[in-house]
Every structure is written in structure tokens, then in C-alpha cells.
Write a structure and sequence with these properties.
Elements: E1 22-29, E2 35-42, E3 48-54, E4 58-61, E5 64-67, E6 73-79, E7 85-91, E8 97-104, E9 110-116, E10 120-123, E11 126-129, E12 135-141, E13 147-153, E14 159-166, E15 172-178, E16 182-185, E17 188-191, E18 197-203, E19 209-215, E20 221-228, E21 234-240, E22 244-247, E23 250-253, E24 263-269, E25 275-281, E26 287-294, E27 300-306, E28 310-313, E29 316-319, E30 329-335, E31 341-345, E32 353-360, E33 366-372, E34 376-379, E35 382-385, E36 395-401, E37 407-413, E38 419-426, E39 432-438, E40 442-445, E41 448-451, E42 457-464, E43 478-480, E44 488-493, E45 499-503, E46 508-511, E47 519-520, E48 529-534, E49 540-544, E50 549-552, E51 560-561, E52 570-575, E53 581-585, E54 590-593, E55 601-603, E56 611-616, E57 622-626, E58 630-634, E59 642-645, E60 655-658, E61 664-667, E62 672-676, E63 684-687, E64 693-698, E65 705-710, E66 716-721, E67 729-730, E68 740-745, E69 751-755, E70 760-763, E71 772-775, E72 780-785, E73 788-793, E74 805-811, E75 824-827, E76 832-838, E77 845-850, E78 864-869, E79 877-878, E80 884-885, ...
Parallel strand pairs: 91-94, 101-108
Antiparallel strand pairs: 1-42, 2-3, 3-6, 4-5, 6-7, 8-9, 9-12, 10-11, 12-13, 14-15, 15-18, 16-17, 18-19, 20-21, 21-24, 22-23, 24-25, 26-27, 27-30, 28-29, 30-31, 32-33, 33-36, 34-35, 36-37, 38-39, 39-42, 40-41, 43-70, 44-45, 45-46, 46-47, 48-49, 49-50, 50-51, 52-53, 53-54, 54-55, 56-57, 57-58, ...
């Protein structure tokens, strides 16, 4: 059978949604009283806003202190994405005034609503007066915290603003409730029908009321939350206690008509305030709708809590965990845009659990926060445990669902008191912010511990979507290692492998391996280089400041000056053939050469504005763009230039590019995007985002294009379009990405971007388009598409090779969790590849996934497995093959020619690799080598001049395979050995550290072998041997290639072990060593080795140690089969022949043992002669010595044992011509 080899090359990109994020940071603010965060929102730049209420006399956000005017005051604070306070504002009077909700618009403005009871309240320069009771306020701040306007609405009763929202057009919606008999919004007067009615009001961006609606019955109704969809429709969620309530023509009836309980309502209005539909849900107790949000498809998420025994949402019945129905459980429900229930969930425990806020990501995933008092609460398979476990106090929870209601992850935080999650929001990058309050003395979010001051503090905690350092990158673009941190200004690739980038201070870097490694080209210049381009693979040009131009004739390895004779800085250079080229730059200069740079002439541009980019679409027609207001065109090969477009002076153009002779694009600062479809005769302005700097544009074809630049916060951004620039969306780039200066695409899939800090980004995904069909040519197929490189070799077919066809599809789609095998933790990259072969009869495939080692934590290779799926409707399964892992790829052998993906398995597989080089010189050598942490040792015999190389990998996972007769089970550890030569003298395994090892079965274990993953396991002769303190399994003269594993049989193997006994002796005496052997097959050979010259052969040896100390020795016993057992031991010599042990009655030593303090030596009687005190450790090393003459009777000396290692020590006192020895133990 011939083999079909398949090679798939990708860059790892998407991070699995199931990965639980880390708490990135957390902040708390509080004073001496009760302060809390009620609502949070994020803007397009990831800034976070929190509104709430503070009772303390003052609270401090960062360096900003807000002072309370009395009672309760509202606050609004803005954080950047890193938790730094940008500004904070407050408003209030002597009575309760609260901020309940905040929302941002597309321009970064912030809307806040709530209520105030004080007689008056001031927002900026606007003073508002209360109409009686509590009045509603609506305030709009600009991004810098300045009040743009403030409005208040209310009557004689208590009226509340509970929620606010904005739509894509900047319209503002506020919902709440009013108890006043009537309330006026603009020209609309709303009348209360009962205790309180709900309301929804729409305002324009200046706060003018466009319309207002209300609904209510005889009871109490509240509009707790509002949210808008992409069409400008508005959803309102709330609670009603009236027997019935009417929205338009929709009558909602309370399940319990006694008016003592509450039900939930959800109502949808169109942009003009007309009711489109209304739904209700409830039971016989108190059920609350607390928050709602809408996804990009118009689906609606509603959350809240229900105390009823059960509650129905459509055909979905949710049952309270507390069957009596006295406590609250959480509900999360998803409706489609027409009000049909798609799914409903109800996590909860036996105490009060409440969902308070929800947010939705662009992907459709749902974030919910709230609090739970139950001792534990289950979100899918994740169990959150209450820190106080009393079913009285509450902890914060945050949970993420996918769009189908499956749990992706859940987290909690809490202490010993009441801690509540009140509001949550998510930004465009999937970062999550949660706010609320905590009564506990402290609360911990990941590594962030917040300590309470006063009664209760507000908190804001941030969950980062960015993988922690030990996680997979989540980028469409991968950061390459450029080897420099200098600003890179331009990049150009001549093919897939070879590219050059230039930058400041004469920086030139070159790659010959598709950007994985870059070499610095030194010595060309120290001036800034601003542009590089190539006219042929070997011939390229670079330009920069001071009129510098340099040329390479060898693909960028060497450069020579091609001086222009001008001193103007040159920002862009392009050659249209070998001889003719152009450079543009400072003060409107346009230079032209027609002799390959030997001479340059200046052409009249008609402007003194700086020109930043030049591009020729053919040898006659070209364009130059620049600062302030200039787009220039030439139709005669650059001899004359005319202005074809004036950009507003506040904008400017940085770069121009044409996909063909008609369609071109230009970009610049302040969000400038221009487009032409008629060869540059006219240009249309595409309005995008102000304050963005667009530095470079590239279109590999007329539809697919990319822009690189920086955001208002000076972060690097990349945008792409697939419709010729009509619409644009952001690419994901590694965080943080510095500002980007240039972008270049080799084709529609493979591109590079460069910028500040030496950043080089690469993508192989492009737009992730796929499907290629190619015929077999010469028995080999080469495909390049969507970042997937496929190489097929040695196809086997009964048909002629030109009749064989292959189709490869790339699917950038998330694989449903429901299709996972139980052993799969999560699909790795939310995408998969499909290969279809026609007229291929049989094959074997090697599937290789490539990654960039610079951006991929190789620790995670231990968890990766390859998946296959025979048919799209079938489950994904693991390919049962051992992966080959190299420095930049992971490969699997498979005969499944179908769908492939990568997965993280639930196994704690560990791959340990050790490369061993043996160099034998001049003599036969016996070499023993153990791979680090692999617990497998190999012994080799090398002949003179031989060199061997070994790669050893350990896998803690079940490799599968058929068991040989007599073997009942396999352990979950196996080893893979690759070796240049064939034979080894010994292989031994420390079985104690093998995963799946059971001590009670130790006598039944033996070693199995197979040459590869496709061959069955075979038992090989195994010896159970004790080597020192370890019991190991040994095989003799085995091939050191293939797989080794430990299997359990039915027969007990005896242990071949050696042991030693010794008699006691002092230094100077003879000590005897007696060996004994059990197991093994005699006769035996004995080899003794040890310290102080010990050595010899035979069962018994003797030795004399001349000094006190601890001495190591080793006995190796080899039986007749060549198996060796090793016994390692120590001998302690703690006395000396002829030296008295113990202190006479003139000396007393205490304390003994001593705990790292001072040892006292007391001289009971007068000692007139000189005394010498010496202290030795157990190894005979001198650690203290002192000579003294005691001055009087009953004097003493001290020996400090501070810092001395624990163990036995010897104190030697020399006096009266005698030596006295005392043992002292240090603890």
C-alpha cells in the first residue's frame, strides 16, 4: 500500500470559549458607611463606567475625592481598561439621591439615570428641582466627564428611573416606574392607574422627549430594564402585581390574581413606540424580571429570580429547587425577536439566589452576574460554593453561557457576609466588568483582595479575555520575534519566505523563513529608513531622511547607497521596472530616476505639503498622497502631476494602494478612508471613526483589503473588508499591540504588519476563505489556501493519477459542545479542516499542525490531541496515535480521511523530551543516561568513534493498543524512544512514578514494547530489581526504539535485591561489611565502592576509617543473567579510638538538644591551663574553634548554633593533655 502524506500548516489563533478567564484586576471604594455600585457599562475603547450611590461623608476614586452633600449621593466614575480612574463625578443633596443605571453611546458619551429626593440637585451647571417625593433624572456626560445636559421628570409621588439604553443613532431610552398620579414627558402625559405604573420614554441625543408610554393596573408595576436592538426597537423587562396589565392590544394576566404576588413581563416597542408584542411569565409567588439585553440578531436575554414553585416560559417549565417555593432561584431566558422562547435555564439552591444583570458579547455569548445565598449552586458541571455556607449570607457569581444556553464557565467571589453582584458589562474584546458591593471584611477576586472600610464598599472587578501567559493566543494575527524594539516603518515580501523590513536608526531586518526568524543587517546607515519595496526578488530599494536611498541586488543581504543629491526626507519609494522609480517626501518633493538610481530629478508636484506615499498602477499612471489636503495623479510617467482630490484640512492621507487600474484606496489620520473606482479621476470619502490614525492600506484583490494604524488610545489596530471597502471590521491582534505603521499582503491570506517597538505581526488566516480542488501532478499535490498548506505524496489508486482529485475545505466555525467526546475538554481553535479525496483507494496520512514557538506556550502541547469526524453529523473522536512534537509542529498519523481539528483533552498528559548525545572517543564506553523527570534510564555500549543520539518522550496517557496474553491492564504512562543506533544493554523504569501504578500489584508488573503505534504490544523479558532506594523494572539487550509501557500480569516476579549489614567501630578500628542477596540467579559478582578509599569484591569486605564522619558506600551485585541490583548505604563514625567520650565533672554542656541557639559550656572548677574548644558537623567539617583560659571558677563559654544545619554535631574539648568528646544534637 502506498502512503498518502498530508501536511496541514496553520498558526494557532482562536482561544476556546470554554477557557475560564482570570480576574485581571479589582478595585474597591468606600468610606465609613454604605457605598455600592449599581450598574456598569463599557465604551468602544474598553473604558468602564460605574454608577451607584454612596452614603459615606466622602469616597475617593484614585486621586479624586467626592464629598457627600448629605443622605445618599449618586456617583459616576470612568476607569480605563486597566482599572485606572480617569474621572469621577457626584451629585446630590441632603436626601437620598441614587444612580441606578448607565449606558454609553457610539461616541463615548455616557447616560445616567436614577432618582433624587433632595429639594434640588446640580449636574454641571444645571440645577434641577424636585416636584415632590422622588423625581427621575437623566444626565448625559461627554467622554471627559463634562455634563452635556440634565433633565428631570416627576410628580408629587415617588418616581424612579431604573434603566437606560442607547441605540445606534444616539437615541436614549429610559424605563422605570412612577407613583405620581401623572407625570409629563415632553408633550406626553402619563397617568398612573394604581399603586405605580411602568414607563418607557425615548429622547433624542439632546434629551428632548420624542415619545413616552406607560402601562399599569391596580397594583404595582415597574419597568426594571430596557435595551435596544439594531433596528431601533426597544425591549422593556419588568414586574407587575396587578391582576392584569395591557400593552397595546396585548393583555397579560397574572397567574395569581389576588394582587399579592408579582409576575414578569417583557414587551417590545418599535422605534415609534408602537407595541409589537408582549409576554408574561410567573407563578403563585413573587417573580421578578431584573435585566434584559439584545444580541446582534435581535434575540433577547432576560434574567431575574422566581420564588414560585415553578414558572413557565413558553413551553419551558422551570422548577424551584426549594419545593416549598419560599426562596428565590435564578432564571435566564432567551427569546427570539418575535417573542418566542428559545430556551430557559434556572440555576439555584435551597436559599435565595438572584440574577441581577446580564450582558451579551458580539459572539452571542451571555454574561450574567448576581448573588447566591445557597450553600452551593450548580452552573452546568461547575459547582460554586458559598464562602459562609450558612444559607444566610450571599456571594457574588459571574457565569458565561453560549448562545444555546450551554455553560462555558462560572466563577464566584465572597466572604463571610453579604456580597452582591449588581451590574455587568462586556467590551468588544470580550473583557468583562462586574460591579456591586460587599459587606464582608474582605473579598477576593483571583489574586486581588479587597478590604472593606465602613459598612459596605462598592467594587469593580475585571475579567480579562486575554489568555494568561500559560494559555493559547487568541489572535487572527500572530506576533513574530523581530529581534528589535526599534520602530519599523515599512515591510515588503518578495514571496512566502523572503521579506525585508526597515525602520528608525537605519534598521534593516531580513527573514528567509516566512517571518519566524529575522536577521539584522548592520552598517548600512544610522538615519531613519521610512520605506522599502522590491521590483524583483533580488532587487529592492529603501529610502529615508536626508534624501537617503539605498539599493540591494541580493534580496536585502547587502545594501549600497544610491544618493539622490537631495536632502529632503523621503517617505515612500516605488520602482515600476528595473530602471524607473519614484520617491516622494518632505515639502512636496517628487523624485524620479530612469537609470536605476544613478541619477534623480525633481518633478513639480504643485504642493509644499509633505507627501507620504507613492503608488504606480502602470508605467504611466501613478498617485502621490500626503498631508493636509493632497491627492496627486500623473498620467505621463510622473513628469507632471495634478490634484484630483482635496481632503478636508483636518484630515490628511498617509498611504495609497490600487488593486487594479481602476480601484484604489487611500487612508489617513482622523479616520480618513478614500476610494476610487475610475482610476483615480474622482474619489469618494468613506466616513469611519474620527481620532483613529490609519497609516497603511493594502488590497491583494478588489474585494479583500486591510488597514493598519492606531486607535485614539494609541493601540495598534488592523481592520479588514471583504466587500471592497464598503464595510470594515476589526481583526484580533495580540494584546497589547503598539501602533502599526505599515501592512503588506503576499496574497489574500498571508500578510504582515509592522510598527512601533519592533512589532511584526503575521496572519495566515486572511479572510479564511477555503475550498481548493487540484489534480495530481507527478504523484504530488501542493495546495496553499486559507493558511492551510497541504502536501500529498504517494497516492494509491487503481485509476490513473490524473483521475485522482482532492478538495480541501476550511471551516472557521465553532464546533458544538454537544459533539464532543467525553474525553475532550474543549475544541482548541473553534475551526476545522476537511479533506475529500476522489478515487483514492487507500492511504495513511500524517497530519501536522504548525505553530509559532515565540507565541505559543509549548506547555500546552501536553494536552493536545488530534480529532477526526467521519461525517458532519457524527461525534468528534480522538485519533488514537502518539503525537510527534517538534519545535514548531505537532503531527499525528491517521487513516481517517475526513474532518480534523485539535482538542484539549481531559487527560493530564505530560510530554517530556530529552535529547542525549554520546560521543565515544578511542575506547569502548558504557554510558548510562536518565532523561529529566521521565523515570526511564537507558544504558548503551558505544564502540570507539561512535556517536549516538536519543530522543526520549514520556506520555502520561493511555496509548491504547491490544494487550498480549497474560497481561490484564496497562498503566497510563508510556515512553517513546527514538535512537540512531539499535541496541541497548539495559533499559530500566522507576515504576513507582508511573501513572496508574498500584503498589499492591507491584509484583505483577512487567515491561511491554511495540515498535510503533500501529503494532500490538509484546511482553519482553523483565526483571524486578531493587536499585538503591528504588524498585525498578529492567529489560536487557532491548531495541531502544519504539514504545515502552508497564503492564500488569498474573504471575508474581521475585525482587532481585542486595542488602548490607555492618558492625560498629570508631575511627582507627576495622569495620566489616556483610552483603546478602535475595532473588536473582547465581552465581553473583560483587563490586564495592565508597568514600575514603573503600572498594573491593566478595560477599564480605573490611575497611578502616581514620577520622570521624559520615561515609557513603555502594554495593552492586550482578547475577548470571547480567541484571544488577544496587544497594546504597552510609556509615557514621562518631568516635575515635583512645579519646574519651563524655565530659568529666569539671565540664557541663546545655541545652542538648539545642534549637539553633547558643550552647553553653560551664566550667564547674577553676581551670588554669589553656582550653581549646572545637565543634565539628557530622561530616567532620570544623564549624567552630576557640582557645581560652577560664578567668575564674564557675565560668562559662558559649557556642552559637545559629544557621547550623540540623543533625548530629561533635564538641571536642582539649584540656590537661586529654581530649573529651560530647555529642550535641541540633534541631
Amino acid at each position: 500500500m502506498k502512503k498518502l502524506t498530508l501536511l496541514i500548516a496553520i498558526t494557532f489563533t482562536f482561544f476556546a470559549n470554554a477557557q475560564t478567564p482570570d480576574w485581571n484586576w479589582a478595585k474597591s471604594v468606600g468610606g465609613t458607611s454604605y457605598d455600592y455600585g449599581k450598574s456598569c457599562a463599557t465604551d468602544a475603547n474598553g473604558n468602564i463606567f460605574v454608577t451607584g450611590t454612596f452614603n459615606s461623608t466622602s469616597i475617593t476614586f484614585g486621586t479624586i475625592t467626592l464629598s457627600n452633600a448629605g443622605g445618599e449621593d449618586m456617583f459616576i466614575v470612568k476607569y480605563d481598561k486597566n482599572g485606572t480612574v480617569l474621572w469621577a463625578k457626584s451629585a446630590g443633596g441632603p436626601d437620598p439621591d441614587q444612580g441606578n443605571s448607565c449606558s454609553t453611546d457610539a461616541n463615548g458619551n455616557i447616560i445616567v439615570t436614577g432618582y433624587f429626593q433632595s429639594f434640588s440637585i446640580v449636574f454641571g451647571t444645571t440645577t434641577m428641582y424636585n416636584s415632590g417625593g422622588k423625581d427621575i433624572f437623566i444626565t448625559k456626560y461627554d467622554p471627559d466627564g463634562n455634563v452635556l445636559w440634565a433633565k428631570n421628570k416627576g410628580g408629587a409621588g415617588d418616581d424612579f428611573g431604573f434603566s437606560c439604553s442607547t441605540d445606534a443613532n444616539g437615541f436614549i431610552f429610559v424605563s422605570g416606574s412612577f407613583q405620581s398620579s401623572s407625570i409629563i414627558f415632553g408633550t406626553a402625559t402619563l397617568n398612573c392607574a394604581g399603586v405605580s405604573d411602568m414607563f418607557i420614554v425615548k429622547c433624542d441625543e439632546n434629551g428632548n422627549v420624542l415619545w413616552a408610554k406607560s402601562a399599569g393596573g391596580t397594583g404595582e408595576e415597574k419597568g426594571n430594564s430596557c435595551s435596544t436592538d439594531a433596528s431601533g426597537n426597544i425591549l422593556v423587562l419588568g414586574t407587575y402585581s396587578s391582576p392584569s396589565i395591557t400593552f397595546g392590544t396585548n393583555l397579560l394576566t397574572n397567574v395569581d390574581s389576588t394582587e399579592g404576588t408579582s409576575d414578569i413581563f417583557i414587551v417590545k416597542y418599535d422605534e415609534n413606540g408602537n407595541v409589537l408584542w408582549a409576554k408574561s411569565a410567573g407563578g403563585t409567588s413573587y417573580d421578578y424580571g431584573n435585566n434584559c439585553t439584545v444580541d446582534l440578531n435581535g434575540n433577547i436575554i432576560v434574567i431575574g429570580s422566581f420564588e414560585s414553585f415553578y414558572i413557565n416560559f413558553g413551553t419551558n417549565s422551570l422548577f424551584n429547587v426549594d419545593s416549598i417555593g419560599n426562596t428565590a432561584d435564578i432564571f435566564i431566558v432567551k427569546y427570539d425577536g418575535n417573542g418566542n422562547v428559545l430556551w430557559a435555564k434556572s440555576p439555584g439552591g435551597t436559599s435565595v439566589d438572584v440574577g441581577n444583570s446580564c450582558s451579551i458579547e458580539a459572539s452571542g455569548n451571555i454574561i450574567v452576574t448576581g448573588d447566591f445565598s445557597s450553600s452551593s449552586i450548580a452552573f452546568g458541571t461547575t459547582i460554586l460554593t458559598n464562602a459562609e455556607n450558612s444559607e444566610m449570607y450571599s456571594d457574588v457569581f459571574v457565569v458565561k453561557y453560549d448562545e444555546n444556553g450551554n455553560i462555558l464557565w462560572a466563577k464566584s467571589a465572597g466572604g463571610t457576609s453579604y456580597d452582591n453582584g449588581m451590574g455587568c458589562s462586556s467590551d468588544a474584546n470580550g473583557n468583562i466588568s462586574v460591579t456591586g458591593l460587599f459587606y464582608s471584611s474582605s473579598i477576593t477576586f483571583g489574586n486581588n483582595t479587597l478590604n472593606k472600610t465602613g459598612t459596605a464598599n462598592m467594587f469593580i472587578a475585571h475579567l480579562s479575555s486575554v489568555p494568561p501567559p500559560d494559555s493559547f493566543p487568541k489572535n487572527s494575527w500572530t506576533k513574530m520575534n523581530s529581534g528589535t524594539n526599534i520602530i519599523l516603518r515599512s515591510v515588503y515580501f518578495t514571496d512566502h519566505l523572503h521579506g525585508v523590513a526597515v525602520g528608525d536608526f537605519g534598521t534593516i531586518i531580513k527573514t528567509d523563513d516566512a517571518g519566524h526568524n529575522w536577521k539584522t543587517i548592520s552598517g548600512v546607515t544610522t538615519d531613519h529608513l521610512l520605506s522599502v519595496s522590491f521590483v524583483k526578488p533580488d532587487i529592492g530599494w529603501a529610502c529615508g531622511v536626508n534624501g537617503d536611498v539605498f539599493k540591494t541586488n541580493d534580496g536585502g543581504t547587502t545594501w549600497v547607497s544610491a544618493g539622490t543629491g537631495f536632502t529632503n526626507s523621503l517617505f515612500s519609494i516605488q520602482f515600476i521596472n528595473d530602471l524607473t522609480g519614484f520617491a516622494v517626501g518632505e515639502n512636496g518633493i517628487i523624485l524620479k530616476t530612469t537609470d536605476a538610481g544613478l541619477s534623480w530629478s525633481s518633478k513639480t508636484s504643485g504642493t509644499t505639503d509633505w507627501l507620504f506615499s507613492v503608488y504606480f498602477i502602470n508605467e504611466t499612471t501613478g498617485f502621490a498622497v500626503g498631508d493636509q489636503q493632497t491627492v496627486l495623479k500623473t498620467a505621463n510617467g510622473g513628469e507632471t502631476w495634478t490634484t484630483t482630490h482635496f481632503v478636508p484640512a483636518s484630515l490628511g492621507v498617509s498611504n495609497v494602494f490600487f488593486a487594479d487600474e481602476n480601484k484604489g484606496w487611500a487612508v489617513g489620520y482622523n479616520g480618513t478612508i478614500l476610494k476610487t473606482v475610475n482610476g483615480g479621476n474622482s474619489w469618494s470619502d468613506i466616513s469611519y471613526q474620527s481620532n483613529f490614525g490609519f497609516n497603511s492600506v493594502h488590497f491583494p484583490d478588489t474585494l479583500n483589503g486591510w488597514i493598519a494604524g492606531n486607535s485614539p488610545s494609541n493601540e495598534g489596530i488592523i481592520m479588514h473588508t471583504d466587500d471592497g471597502g464598503i464595510t470594515w471590521q476589526y481583526d484580533e491582534t495580540p494584546l497589547p499591540t503598539p501602533p502599526l505603521r505599515f501592512i503588506y499582503f503576499i496574497n489574500e491570506n498571508e500578510g504582515y504588519a509592522v510598527g512601533e517597538n519592533g512589532v511584526v505581526l503575521k496572519t495566515l488566516k486572511g479572510l479564511q476563505t477555503e475550498t481548493v480542488i487540484a489534480p495530481v501532478v507527478g504523484d504530488t499535490i501542493h495546495l496553499d489556501t486559507a493558511g492551510v498548506r497541504l502536501v500529498f505524496n504517494n497516492l494509491y489508486s487503481t485509476l490513473p493519477l490524473d483521475s485522482v482529485s482532492l478538495s480541501v475545505h476550511y471551516f472557521p466555525e465553532e464546533i458544538p459542545v454537544s459533539s464532543y467526546n467525553d474525553s475532550i475538554a474543549t475544541i482548541f481553535n473553534n475551526s476545522y479542516w476537511q479533506a475529500i479525496a476522489v478515487n483514492v483507494d487507500s492511504f495513511s496520512a500524517n497530519v501536522c499542525f504548525y505553530f509559532n514557538p515565540a507565541d505559543f506556550n509549548t506547555t500546552y502541547l501536553q494536552y493536545l490531541s488530534c480529532l477526526y469526524q467521519e461525517f458532519s453529523e457524527e461525534p468528534w473522536n480522538l485519533i488514537n496515535a502518539v503525537p510527534e512534537i517538534d519545535s514548531n509542529k505537532i503531527c499525528f498519523i491517521t487513516d481517517h480521511f475526513s474532518n480534523w481539528s485539535l482538542a484539549i483533552t481531559k487527560s493530564d498528559a505530560r510530554v517530556k523530551k530529552d535529547t542525549i548525545l554520546f560521543n565515544a572517543t578511542g575506547q569502548t564506553m558504557l554510558i548510562t543516561k536518565t532523561a529529566p523527570d521521565a523515570d526511564l534510564t537507558m544504558q548503551f555500549e558505544l564502540q570507539p568513534g561512535e556517536t549516538d543520539s536519543v530522543i526520549l518522550r514520556r506520555y502520561d496517557m493511555n496509548p491504547g493498543g491490544d494487550l498480549p496474553l497474560g497481561i490484564n491492564k496497562l498503566t497510563e504512562t508510556f515512553w517513546e524512544v527514538n535512537r540512531t543506533l539499535i541496541d541497548s544493554t539495559d533499559i530500566w523504569i522507576d515504576v513507582k512514578n508511573v501513572k496508574g501504578y498500584t503498589d499492591s500489584d507491584s509484583g505483577e508488573y512487567r515491561i511491554l514494547h511495540r515498535p510503533d503505534a500501529l503494532t500490538d504490544w509484546v511482553e519482553i523479558p523483565t526483571y524486578r530489581v531493587r536499585r538503591g532506594m528504588k524498585e525498578v523494572l529492567i529489560v536487557k539487550n532491548a531495541s531502544a526504539r519504539g514504545h515502552f509501557i508497564v503492564g500488569a500480569g498474573t504471575d508474581i516476579m521475585p525482587v532481585f535485591s542486595a542488602s548490607v549489614t555492618t558492625d560498629s567501630a570508631c575511627a582507627g578500628d576495622t569495620i566489616h561489611f556483610q552483603s546478602s542477596v535475595s532473588g536473582g540467579i547465581g552465581p553473583f559478582q560483587y563490586i564495592w565502592e565508597g568514600d575514603a578509599g573503600l572498594g573491593g569484591g566478595g560477599e564480605v569486605i573490611s575497611h578502616v576509617y581514620s577520622a570521624m564522619g559520615v561515609y557513603n558506600y555502594s554495593l552492586s551485585v550482578e547475577d548470571s543473567t547480567g541484571v544488577v541490583s544496587v544497594f546504597d548505604g552510609t556509615v557514621i563514625i562518631d568516635c575515635v579510638t583512645g579519646i574519651e567520650e563524655g565530659i568529666d565533672d569539671r565540664f557541663f554542656v546545655y541545652p542538648n538538644p539545642v534549637n539553633h541557639s547558643k550552647l553553653n559550656i560551664v566550667f564547674k572548677n577553676s581551670v588554669t591551663e589553656k582550653l581549646k574548644i572545637t565543634v565539628y558537623d557530622v561530616y567532620g567539617r570544623k564549624i567552630y574553634q576557640k582557645s581560652t583560659i577560664p578567668a575564674k571558677e564557675e565560668s562559662q563559654d558559649e557556642v552559637s548554633f545559629s544557621g547550623v544545619s540540623p543533625g548530629l554535631h561533635l564538641v571536642k574539648i582539649e584540656a590537661n593533655g586529654k581530649i573529651y568528646l560530647q555529642k550535641v544534637v541540633v534541631r
